[in-house]
Amino acid sequence: MFASFLRIRRQPFKINPFWVFLFLFSNLLGTYNHILFSCIPISVFVGTLLWEGRYKSGQLNPLAVLLTINCVNLILVFSSMRYYLESMSSQIGYVILSALLLLVFTSKCYFLLIGKVRRFNLNIPKKMITVIFTLGISAFAIFHGIAFFQVLSGYKIILQIFSYECSTLTEIALSLVGCMVLACFLIQLAKDLKLEIIPVEIYWIICYFGIFCIYTISCSFRYYLSIYILIGLYIAYRISFRTQMASFFVASIAMGFIIMQFIWYDIFIVGNFPLKAVDFKIGNRQKETTAHFLPKQPVIDFLRTNKTGQIQYLIDEPYFVEQPILFYKTISPWDESKNKKIFLDYDHTSYKTGFLLYTQDD
Questions:
Q1: How many Å apart are CA 291 and CA 295, to the nearest integer?
Q2: Residues 157, 258: one domain?
Q3: Does residue 143 sit in the same domain as residue 110?
Q4: Transmembrane ranges (predicted)?
Q5: How crowded is the C-beta side of 51, counted as CA atoms within 13 Å?
Q6: By CB neighbour count within 10 A (0-12 exposed, 13-18 middle, 19+ buried), where does 42 fall?
Q7: In the chain, which end has fewer C-beta atoms inside a 10 angstrom radius, N or C?
Q8: Could you tell me the pTM of the whole model?
């Protein structure tokens, strides 16, 4: 998507139709995968309109046409999935064919329309844009600021995925890295906002802040993947021109890299450290758990050894354990006795495997 977008932006009138099709296809596929991915093109669309409305250059009108077409496609996908998902799943061949025809048709529409909007201009007052920017940044800071900083620091992501509890010193060091990266971003952002003509990329990022809060105010680390990448690309691009900040940014990355090597050594080389299911909070006190990511091999070994035929789950959400067990049972089945029943729960107290497993006789 990113490569096709760059090509289209550079040569909107002479672009190969393949890149237009690829851009629309990648957006369609991303939205089908998860609706939150559509936040990026929607934000770019809104940011482009605001930028054109502020500076009235007409330079991005072709891009606005493409993004408008793309938004129509995304609305169609979202509506179809929301209201016709069951019927679509039974006729997947027709769905794929319809999607391809839609992409071909909308790609053709782009080339038919771009020549007619070269002189189309919006008129958006500067004060309105200032208000929109303020609301967008404030909303993101309130609802997602803490959680996003935890993504930048990283230690809670490591906790969630690997059940690896960093020492207090490591948490402080990684938090310092997060502060340094955040400072790099805010300094570059402040400099760009003072320019006479603010780069359109700033409009895209700030619009993403606000529109993301319209999509959701709940926190989950996976939600911040897109903005994490966008901010990383923005910082890298800006420090290529403002080299005085480059050393500071590189120092923060190097510091984080060194710390992470010690953590990876503990997890992957030393390994076999005792685990327990840990409940913790992210963002604005939202509860998360490491239980869903606990290694399932100890459970499989227990089931295989005891020839288990029945499992009673004592946990609220058995999906994250039940599905891996079904997978292992499919690829490598074991002898089962229908009379053998086990009880399975998460272990939140003792450091062992993270699971409590006992038979009906125990």
A1: 9
A2: yes
A3: no
A4: 35-51, 63-85, 91-117, 129-152, 172-190, 197-217, 223-239, 246-265
A5: 26
A6: buried
A7: C
A8: 0.86
Query: Is residue 136 in a domain?
Result: yes
Mark whether 312 and 208 lie in a shared domain: no
Angle at 288 between CA 284 and CA 292, to 5 degrees: 165
Helix (H) or strand (E) holding 59: none
The pLDDT score that the predictor gives to residue 263 is 94
**Structure token digits, residue 190:** 């402040």
What are 26-41's pLDDT values in tens digits? 888 888 888 888 999 9
User: Residue 242's pLDDT is what?
Assistant: 82
Sign (positive/negative) of CA torsion 328, 333, 334, 339? positive
Domain count, the chain: 3
Q: Is position 289 within any domain?
A: no
Summarised one tens digit per residue, pLDDT across range 127-182 is 999 999 999 999 999 999 999 999 999 999 999 999 899 999 999 999 999 999 99
Q: Which two tokens stand for residue 312?
A: 């009673």
Same domain membership, residue 142 and residue 186: yes
Give domain status of residue 220, yes or no.
Answer: yes
Whether the CB-CB separation of 70 and 41 falls below 8 Å is answered with: yes
Shared domain for 108 and 141, answered yes or no, is: no
Query: Cα 96 vs. chain centroid, distance in angstroms?
Result: 25
Residue 219 dihedral angles phi and psi, to the nearest 5°: -110, 135
Residue 343, classed as helix, strand or coil, is strand
pLDDT (0 to 100) of residue 3: 61
- Cross-strand partners of 352: 275
CA-nearest of 320, 300, 315 to 347 is 315
pLDDT of residue 115: 67
Determine whether 227 is exposed, middle or buried from the number of CB atoms within 10 Å of its CB (0-12, 13-18, 19+): buried
Joined together, the tokens standing for residue 27 give 């957006």
Among 268, 302, 322, the domain-final residue is: 268
Question: φ and ψ at 289, to 5 degrees?
Answer: -145, 155
- Beta-carbon contacts of 24 under 8 Å, excluding residues fewer than 6 positions away, are 69, 70, 73, 103, 106, 107
Range of the domain at 354: 294-359
The whole-angstrom separation of Cα 54 and Cα 126 is 6
Instruction: List C-alpha distances in Å: 129 to 123, 126, 135, 215.
Output: 11, 5, 10, 20
CA atoms within 13 A on the CB side of 341: 7
